[in-house]
Amino acid sequence: MIIGVPKEIKTQENRIALTPFGVEKLTSLGHKVLLEHDGGVRCGFLDENYQSAGANVVDGPQEIFAQSELIVKVKEPQTPEIEMTREGQVMFTYFHFAADRELTERFRDTGATAIAYETVQTDNGELPLLIPMSEVAGRMAIQEGARMLEMNNGGRGVLLGGVPGVEPATVTIIGGGVVGLNSAKMAAGLGANVYILDVDVNRLRYLDDIMPKNVTTLYSDPVTLRDLLTRTDLLVGAVLVVGAKAPKLVTREMLEYMRPGTVIVDVAVDQGGCVETCRPTTHEDPTFVVDGIIHYCVANMPGAVPNTSTRALTNSTYPYVEKIAQFGAEKAMLSDPALLKGLNTYKRNITHSGVAEAFGLDYVDPLSLLG
Fold this sequence. Notes:
- The chain has 371 residues and is α/β, with parallel strands linked by helices.
- It has 2 domains: 2-119 and 306-370, Rossmann fold, CATH 3.40.50.720; 133-299, NAD(P)-binding Rossmann-like Domain (Rossmann fold, 3-Layer(aba) Sandwich), CATH 3.40.50.720.
- The protein contains 14 helices and 15 strands.
- Helix 10 (306-327) packs across helix 11 (329-335).
- The longest helix is centred in the C-terminal third of the chain and has 22 residues, at 306-327.
- The radius of gyration is 21 Å and the shape is globular.
- It starts with a strand and ends with a helix.
């Protein structure tokens, strides 16, 4: 199979979808890998590293899209990439379709196959290709939130961990999944007072068992959330509904409970955000202010630490890339239920129920098309 790895063109997206190790394994299996010039340089991988591993380095994306049967990326395709995508081509990347109707319809209409990292799901409910980036984003949420709380960045001028004789900041995390757990670890480690809200009582029991004493677990409901907002310094949105839009748990009206200079980091922004006033931002211009509250809503947070996040991501994605290359997308999905759940568009159909429901579009069971 011919596998194409273009350079990411989303603003300040510095990751790449294959490391030299992945290229070496694929080429040793007889596959051809086309990689765009300087595609991995921002992660610390030079063209020479890829060429030594067996890749063909090409000057631009046109040759990659024209020749490749499988396109492997990190972020959702941008307009120029959609225009180069061919019918029947397979693209394996983060799509987050449920947050963007235009992207969904435009990619569907190319006739290409979209297998989304974020909806690949194992029988036990785990999201193996979302977990590594959720771990990175959860940790970065505290790192960036702490920075935004500094007065020179418009924040309240609060040190997250406090100092002897001065109370630490209060961090409220909505969602006790992978993002929430990693945010809580970081915030607790810095000495903040941390609250995690979730509606899964069993998950709250688990978090209560493993977290240090400065982390409190609470059942999530509007009354509890409103009460917490009055004393929160940093709010982290960490809610996930697989393949669907995130629910709006913090409304515009609820901002009035928060103090000026408080910071919101909505990690769920790539699925529409769980804060009503959230809108996607970039690393170039990461924040905006609504009613005196700083919003940090960068949709590709791990792109700021590409060396770490590329390695973490490809550790998880590579086995699926190899499976698709070895067997073809259709056979690979039929043999692997987790990969089948990643199928979002196929032959101009929406094949993930969460994406279809987000926009009221028709859903087609993928097995009726693949079988």
